[in-house]
Amino acid sequence: MTHKDMMPLLDKANVLIEALPYIQRFNRKIIIIKYGGSAMVNDQLKQSVIEDAVLLKLVGFKPIIVHGGGKEISRWISKVGMESRFVNGLRVTDAATMELVEMVLNRVNKGLVQMIEQLGVKAAGVSGKDGGLLTVKKKYSDGQDIGFVGDITKVDPCILYDLLEKDFLPVVCPVGMDMDYNTYNINADDAASEIAKAMKAEKLAFLSDIEGVYRDASDPETLISELTVPEAEELIKDGVVGGGMLPKINNCIEAINSGVNRVHILDGRIPHCLLLEIFTNKGIGTAFIREGDPRYFQNTQKEEM
Q: What angle separates helix 70-79 from helix 95-118, to the nearest 10 degrees?
């Protein structure tokens, strides 16, 4: 074999060596993956995300997937002749809509379980109703009744610990019950964040249709690689982030303050974005860290915050 022929193989070896310290650091640690956005409707991206989660499992991590399904829900609502209504970005969910939402989310859930099983890893799909995982109360939007949409009041992660102990990869559907056992739809970002907080997860990764947090949303060169909680709060105070990004940033801040070690916002439209963020020195998204914690990129050429 010539030196030229060996170069691609050496590049692969270097990638594995770069990943080694991260594999050692996060071995047996819990990682919550919030899976949503375009990566859920593009078959190639869907396969990429599931492959990433399976690889994390096989190298010793403990991944848990919490999935959304908003685009699929909207498609089915239209398909059956109903109309999607939103108030301040929240889906109005009456009884008929809730029935359809639960059906679609369970269908998505079992589809993901099937994909994981096809790759040789045991998976189990659960909803927030199983084992009392997610207890909710009715959510209002600026005082408006938006139906069966829930705010999480309690997380009981026992069923997830049991599944991890039995070597399953849990896949969580964001549906819960209130104290009267009524079924509610839950924002998947909120579900992932609350589960990560309850389990003191090592990492929480939000897969979405954005690359991360920018200092200037119109300039892709201003992507911020790392943010401490005070820095993130300063961006909110200065109005740098707002709109649809605000709830996501607040979820990141609350997760860090509640004991999650690292929180990431990643562009799920990039194939294998999870592996690129977790196993490489440079990463690709925005990582939220505690003030005083070592920076991922302090020894790289990437710009320091």
A: 120
Closest CA to 169 of 291, 53, 75, 89: 53
**pTM over 0.85, yes/no:** yes
- Using DSSP bridges, classify how beta strands 62-67 and 30-35 pair: parallel, antiparallel or unpaired: parallel
Task: Return d(Cα 81, Cα 299) in angstroms, integer.
Answer: 56
Instruction: Tell me the pLDDT tens digit for each residue of 92-112.
Output: 899 999 999 999 999 999 999
Q: How far is CA 283 from CA 22, 25, 53, 276, in A?
A: 12, 16, 17, 6
Residues 6 or more apart whose CB falls under 8 angstroms from that of 273 comprise 48, 49, 52, 207, 266, 267, 284, 285
Locus of tokens 């940033």: 249
Q: Which residue has the tokens 């019950």?
A: 177
Q: Which of 237, 225, 228, 233 is closest to 283 using CA atoms? A: 225
The radius of gyration computed from the CA coordinates of the chain, to the nearest angstrom, equals 20
240: which 2 tokens?
Answer: 């740098």
Per this entry, what is the length of the chain? 305
Dist. CA 27–CA 251, nearest whole Å: 25
One DSSP character per residue, 141-182 reads ETTEEEEEEEEEEEE-THHHHHHHHTT-EEEEE-EEE-TT--
In this prediction, the residues of the chain whose per-residue pLDDT falls under 70 are 1-12, 15, 281-283, 292, 294-305
Q: What is the pLDDT of residue 6?
A: 62
Residue pointed to by tokens 């047996």: 28
